[in-house]
Amino acid sequence: MNTFTKIALAISGGFAIYKGYKLFKSFTAFEEINVSMQNMSVKPTLDKGVSISVNPLIKNPTKSTMTITQPFVKVFSGNREITTSTVTNKTHTIKPLSENLLDAVQLSLSWDEVGKLADSLKIPTAPKGSSLVKRVMFLFQNSKDLLKQVKLTAQVITYANGVYYKSELMNIDL
Fold first, then answer.
1. How high is the mean pLDDT in each 10-residue block of the chain (174 residues)?
2. CA distance 50 to 102
3. pTM for the model
C-alpha cells in the first residue's frame, strides 16, 4: 500500500469517527430534550373562532448546544385532532444547560369545532330553536369556560440537531 493510500484511509477513518461522534451527540441531545407549554392564552374572535397562543419552553439539560426547528403543535380532544399550528422553517439554538422560551405558536379553533366540543360535553350552547347567530354569540361569550371543561392535549413535533422529535401527549391547562 503506498503512502497516499495510507493517508487517505487515515483521513477517512478519522472523518468516520468524527461523524459517528456527532451522530451519537445528536441522539443524546434528542433523548434529553424537554418540552413544555407556557403562557397559554385564549381569545375569541367573531370571524375565525377561538385563537390560542402558546410559547414552547425547550430545556436542554445536556452539555452540548442544540439546534431545533420551531415546534409544530397538534391539539387533540380525546383521540381526535382538532387543530394544528402552521409549519415554519425557523430554527433556534439552545445553549448547553439552559432553557429557551420560543416564539409563540398560534392555533385556531373554528366556531364549528368549539360547538362540537361543547356538544361532546352535553353543554347547551343556546336555547332550543335559537338561531345560528345566538349559538355563535353564546360560544363567543363562553368559549374560555367551555374550553376549560374539555380535556385538551397537545403534542409537539420538532427536529433537535437534525433528529425527528415527537413529544408524548401533554395536558393543556387553560
1. 62 56 48 80 83 90 89 91 92 92 91 82 69 76 80 88 88 78
2. 22
3. 0.73
